[in-house]
Amino acid sequence: MKKRMLLLPAVILICAAILSLGLGQFHVSPGEIFRFFSNRLFGIPVMDNERMALLQNVLIDIRLPRIAAAILIGASLSVSGASYQALFINPLVSPGLLGVLAGASFGAAFGMVFSSSWFMVQLSTLLFGFLAVIVASGIARIYHNQSVLILVLGGIISGSFFTALLSLIKYIADPYNELPAIVYWLMGSLAFVDTHTIKLIMLPSIAGIILIAFHGRQLNAISMGEEEASSLGVNVRRTRLIIIASATLISALTVVVGGMIGWVGLIIPHICRMLFGPDNEILLPASCLVGGIYLLLIDNISRLAFSFEIPIGVITALIGIPFFTAVLKNSNRGWR
Amino acid sequence: MRMNTVLARTGRIASGSSLLAVLLLLLLQTSTAAREIIDMAGNKVQLPEHISRVVGVSPPCTYLLYAIDPSLIAGLHSSLSADEKSFMPASFTRLPIIGGFFGQGHTINKEVLLGVHPDFMLYSAWKNPRSAQKYHKIMAQFPFPKVAVRVDSVTDYPAALRFLGSVVDRSERAEKLADYAEETLAETRKSVSALPENAKVRVYYAEGVGGLSTEPLGSSHAELIPLAGGINVHQGQITSLYGHEQISMERILLYNPEVILVQEKRFYDSVFSDPRWQNIQAVRNHRVYLIPRALFNWFDRPPSFMRLLGCKWLLHQLYPQHCQLDMVAETIQFYHLFLGIDLSPEQAGGILNP
Fold first, then answer.
1. Cα A73–B214–A103 angle (5° rounding)?
2. Which of A50, A273, A321, B84 is most deeply buried (CB count within 10 A of its CB)?
3. Mean of the per-residue pLDDT values for chain B?
4. Percent with pLDDT over 90 in chain B
5. DSSP state letters, B57-77
6. A71 with A59: CB under 8 angstroms?
7. What is the C-alpha to C-alpha distance for residues A26 and A21, in angstroms, rounded to an integer?
């Protein structure tokens, strides 16, 4: 019955997506959009071919991938953040906890300096994202310690290590072309999203999101403590592995598409907890939907506010930091 | 690690016989009456009689020196690429790396600089008084004479070449280069003024791997566009000295440029297959041009005297009907005159189509 609560954010997300299709610096009237889609869907001839090709360009090639990217990234970061907060039994945890974002950023910069193919840049982003998390869990394993705390410390070490490597890459990058490219990439932007990339990452992203979203019951148990979860019949180690692997995959993919976009994975789960309560079975899918809405909204601001684009990562940080400061007050009561 | 190798290298250079030479030079400098010049910022500077080692603090200055006489340069900004090395004298590629001021926090390594001990340091005078002041402060920390040269714009090059030529006693060569620069600028102006107003081409300057950063009209980064008679489609305000303004794909659709100038090969390779760009006039008509970047970039980043050749190249690309130029011959002539490199027509063709 509680699942019905999810209907509202789902409807809002769909409406926001449709509305965003009509927004942009290139003016297209709602009537024209309607005629365009009636032509595309039902083959009704309504306008000349040249205008049709232009609209296809604006709506399908430029706006649609960007909307899809915003929703996917928002959902990925939020659901990873929410699941980590339950898994590590700490409300102040974000998806970058185990170093995935630092690793992926280093991978992107590394690719930009040492490869000329964009696909290789994307591949290196993904690989180093995983590598950072593997390093983190490797450090935990060295100490034969099953506790989450040592894993978190491993994440801090691994994240700092890749951040240092990133600085090194920035230092040796050519200051005229490569360095600006890296710097803008790290600010986060959806300006470069194209259909090809979206098609490539869509399936793994959605699969990862769904996989995490269906572990609400297990995460509810784990967030009460490992022993309690085991006594409830939850395989803690397996759940942890699945959640960390999926969250690493989808978080690294967000860097592949849009660079570093921070704070989403921290504040959206908090908002959702206020709106929908602490039950992970509701919280996880709700985080997906609200995260999608949030980033879509922010991206619309980023592309419409000025004649130039404000990097989306800058806006999410500017909004996220004051919000985070405000919720710190509530962090020790009633989040579970 | 890099620091160590640099220091070691300088150590080697400064040691032994060259150390003696440096000491001797120091002695000479203090004993003989130095001459006084007035630099392009209007400051009086005391210089030694004979100049043999100069350090430019930013790439535009160093390239200016390179055109006049590469053997004067006593230190590099960063390690050279393999492409650059293949065209440069071996003694030049072995110079110590001093660093330089080219934005993004890059600075000069003072210890390496002290080891190099230049006769003077060459820096660019800025028109903007705030930048000029800031630069002046930075320069004050170096214990060497400082000479300012003005190379804000490509139109400053004739005067800058003549000035630097007289300072380092290479006036004859500088005069030849300055004449070429003047001639190029005058010819370009003549060609552009002869263009019918309605024939002017609307140009988008695409920077970055995604082609979505650009420079507004009036930015010195894109000064060749108006100079070669093009209209820069991005008319916005100059927001920063550094540039690289991000704009959206939809804005480019609105601009619908007739020509796109591309800095990044990666973008050039993808633009004809990326569906988002297919409705842009320039892409449809195959008028997307990759900017040549050998030996240094012809257009910008870093700005250099290569812009003179870039000016001809751009004129030729924008107005093939009005200003037909034999770019292969022009390239060969320019390389011979400015860089002392004799290219074969095949090599010149390769440089023109990178």
1. 35
2. A273
3. 84
4. 43
5. SSHHHHHHHHHH-GGGB--BS
6. no
7. 11
Q: Would an 8 Å CB–CB cutoff place B103 in contact with chain A?
A: yes
Mutual angle of helices A280-304 and A7-21, in 10-degree steps: 20
d(CA B85, CA A168): 24
ipTM score of the complex?
0.73
Report yes or no: A115 at the B interface, CB cutoff 8 Å: no
Tokens for B46, please give them.
Answer: 């005391």
Among candidate residues A95, A121, A72, the one with its CA nearest the CA of residue A248: A95
Q: How far is CA A244 from CA A71, A105, A202, B20, in A?
A: 21, 18, 19, 64
A142 Rama sector, left if φ>0, alpha if ψ -120 to 50, beta otherwise: alpha
CA atoms within 13 A on the CB side of B47: 26
CA distance A2 to B103: 56
pLDDT in tens, A65-118: 999 999 999 999 999 999 999 999 888 889 999 999 999 999 999 998 888 788
- Which is it for strands B202-206 and B146-149: parallel, antiparallel or unpaired? unpaired
B127 contact A CB<8A: no
DSSP one-letter code for B105: T
Tokens of B308: 């003179």
d(CA A17, CA A65): 11
Q: Which two tokens stand for residue B160?
A: 């800058």
Residue type at position B330:
E
The amino acid at residue B52 is S
> Which amino acid, residue A332?
N
Question: Do the Cβ atoms of B244 and A184 come within 8 Å?
Answer: yes
Q: Tell me the pTM.
A: 0.80
Closest CA to B264 of A296, A140, A335, A112: A112
Task: Name residue, tokens 């099953």.
Answer: A146
What's the rounded Cα separation, in Å, for the pair B221 and B186? 21
Residue range B287-344, pLDDT digits in tens: 999 999 888 899 988 889 999 999 999 999 999 888 878 999 999 999 999 998 899 9
Residue A55: closest C-alpha in chain B: B279
Neighbouring residues of A34: CB distance < 8 A, sequence distance ≥ 6: none
Reference A243, options A266, A222, A272, A271; nearest CA is: A222
Q: Which helix (H) or strand (E) holds A21?
A: helix A7-21
Provide the token pair at B283.
């892409």
Q: What is the pLDDT of residue B9?
A: 44
Which pLDDT belongs to residue B7? 40
Q: How far is CA A11 from CA A67, A162, B206, in A?
A: 16, 40, 39
Q: How far apart are CA A223 and CA A221, in angstroms?
A: 6
What is the separation of C-alpha B266 from the centre of its chain, rounded to a whole number of angstroms? 22
Query: If contacts are CB pairs under 8 Å, which of residues 57-76 in chain A contact chain B?
Result: 57-58, 61-63
Say which residue the tokens 């230190």 belong to: B75
A 306-335 residues inside an 8 A Cβ radius of B: 307-309, 311
Which of B203, B239, B224, B240 minimizes the C-alpha distance to B303? B224
